[in-house]
Amino acid sequence: MPSTDTDVLIAGAGPAGLALAIDLRRRGVAHRVISAADGGFEGSRAKGVQPRTLEVLDDLGALETVQAHSRLYPKLGLHLGPLTVSKTMIKRHPASEDVPHPNSLMVAQYDTDAALRGRLAELGGTVKFGIRLSTYTADARGATATVERADGGSEQIRARFLVGADGGGSTVRRTSGIDFPGTTDESDRMIVADLSLDGLSADRWHVWPRHAGRFMALCPLPDGTFQLMLKLRPEEKADLDREAIARMIGDFVGRANITVREIHWSSVWRPNIRLAASYRSGPVLLVGDAAHVHPPTGGQGMNTGIQDAYNLGWKLAQVLAGAPDALLDTYQAERRPVAARVLGLSSEIYDSMNSRPLAGTKRGDEERQLTLSYAGGPLAPDAAGSPGPRPGDRAPDAAYTDTEGRTGRLHQAFRGTHFTLLALGTQARPAADGLARPAGGAEIRILAVADPAGALRQHYAPAGPALVLVRPDGYIAATASAADTSAIENFLALAAPARTA
Question: Does the predicted TM-score (pTM) go above 0.85?
Fold first, then answer.
């Protein structure tokens, strides 16, 4: 049987697997991406891209393409008998100094996936479709996977790390023996489909909140199609035929001027609410739906998966460059609590849709994921107390003028594969220059500002001169004064190869 070697094997080419592949590709990490599917996902399914994920996509180089296939969320049109009531579900926010992408965007998942595949291709990467991971063995030095091709052939791939991005039914997770506790309600079913139809305006997300024990919504997607979500009664047949779906829609709307022309994709969804007991087993790690599955309400699942990959990518690269292996344990410590909270939030919204449909249409700031923090975790254990930026928090955007007179924005300076060390105040630059550099791994770039003002001073140096180290994934790693840089040194001891003087 043929055998090949790589540093990272990614099983699965959904949003999480693709985001990880892009991050590894730009870091120069050898990897392979395989997918049992014949091609990219064809359905809309996950359609909400949250502001924090937009920042991630900006860094990965896929934001512009995603935005080109997006729209802002429209208002709801609640059909209540003879009345249609307009309601704002997702509040629109103006851009601010610290939040450049303030609004959730509606993007069909097939367009998000295509944008990520396109970006991977721009970097010289590719997805090998029609290749299924059938089994693997793991040892202290890595994993040996057996994969089967669509033509009947097979191959062994030896990888230092194996990442399961292969969905809720993950072969990687099952083979690892990692438990996946939770619930699946077979009696609670919903038809989800992408339709072309006539007779319905595209300026509203049309919702029929309750009809004989059922619920229906038709959401206008950016490309002119509609996403159908139709909750079935427990005894009702899940018929995905065009005529049957058209008949059920007609039963809700009570008029004959809506015509279903074509069904592009359809599926039957069941509440499958699960969270992996662990995100790591030796050289095997889980991202996205392989680690957590959520109700679709709130637009959280795909966003959480992409951000899983963004957290994991730089850590894999650092460990492969010689950083302590324990850095990979911080992936679970930081991301699993996020998934647990997101699972609770999306489940709460879904439950309220069943019991109080109008209450289930409310959305708040938590869904935007901008306040997500790793403070108190293993990489930011002493985050509380002093004024200024808190280790573990998202690094806000701000304008700056550096000591060479160059102007820019922080998020532009953060973009890439490096750490950014902000040296704020005239006393901070010598201390930054005096820090010992890691022996390898991600570069540390110094951005020196002699006299920080405005949002830069407000968010990063309210108490005077400061050093702020920003992680490659845009979270604050550590803060220090010019007189004592030990906090930064301690972080680098956990997250970088052994340093030289």
Answer: yes
